Amino acid sequence: MTTVAAYAAPSAKAPLERTTIERRAVGEFDVLIDIKFAGICHSDIHQARDGWSEGIFPMVPGHEIAGIVTETGSGVTKFAVGDRVGVGCMVDSCRECDNCKAGLEQYCVKGNTGTYNALDMNGDPTYGGYSTHIVVDENYTVRIPDGLSLDEAAPLLCAGITTYSPLKHWKAGPGKKVAVLGMGGLGHVGVKIAHALGAEVTVLSQSLRKRDDGLKLGADHYYATSDPKTFEELAGTFDIILSTVSAPLDFGAYLALLKTDGALVNVGAPEEPISVNLFSLIGGRKSLSGSGIGGIQETQEMLDFCAEHGFGAEIELIGASEINEAYERVLNSDVRYRFVIDAATI
């Protein structure tokens, strides 16, 4: 066991504060990672404030982790000391179910082990990336290509794979019209990825405040959802709508924007349940779907794709003492577009 510095929420809704945590000894197939940067995801806030379910406290959030390998177990073959690596939203799974065997560890039938706010296979709580070091099994660690800076790569470990996986699954590409709903931490990466895949990309945002940014990041069109004319003009337009928002929506209004056989895919996770009039699905053989992160192999594929196309996330680098302020700014949509913690300040 090793004691390392971290920032933790001592209880639900409490401000995060500096503390120390214990990391397990490096096992046979483990790598010890010196964390350089950790992104702040909206889901960190949901969990630290018991928004989705009862959390495990003290809680060290953070599942957008980029750093350097400083030690490897005797059985490690995939990484060496000095390698640039990342860790996303999970650090283990059963490895035996059909989903795990198919590279869909995120959908492990027994439930994957979250990077934080979870219990590992030994029943011990997991602690995330708001810390100086983490020990992770090599099979749940990915390589960050040299073409990506570590700070801009960190948010890709959640925001990148969360948007890449559904865009690939629903075959976004040339000839497809994709709408990204919400231009925040997830949405702005989704715009970049959809554009790089060759789709015609439209941003649907509450206002036109971020229009110039959206077009710069690769959107072909930008509409305000606060304008009723948007829904008239765009009726029956899209093959895919990727919803990145974490607030309840009028799903009927957005389903009406889909073509026949179109899909409205949710990666944002509102805390409240939703209601849907099923006629809005039946009328065009439309689907209302969800998607959760991606498997380890697909996460590596996503990182390689982003490096090949020369982009990471748009970030605002902060010190650890600014985490609580950053949480409030995220809730007020006052970030362009992902806060990243400099772990050297922890």
Polypeptide structure, described:
The chain is α/β, with parallel strands linked by helices and 346 residues long. Helices cover 23% and strands 26% of the residues. The chain contains eleven helices and 17 strands. The protein has helices at 42-48, 98-101, 150-153, 159-169, 187-196, 211-217, 228-233, 251-255, 279-282, 296-309, 323-331; strands spanning 2-8, 17-23, 30-39, 65-72, 84-87, 90-92, 113-114, 133-137, 142-143, 177-181, 200-205, 221-224, 238-243, 258-266, 287-290, 315-318, 338-342. The strands form four sheets. Strands 3, 4, 5, 8, 9, 16 and 17 form a seven-stranded mixed beta sheet that branches. The protein has a six-stranded parallel beta sheet with strand order 12-11-10-13-14-15, with helices on one face. Helix 4 (159-169) packs across helix 5 (187-196) and helix 4 packs across helix 10 (296-309). The radius of gyration is 20 Å and the shape is globular.
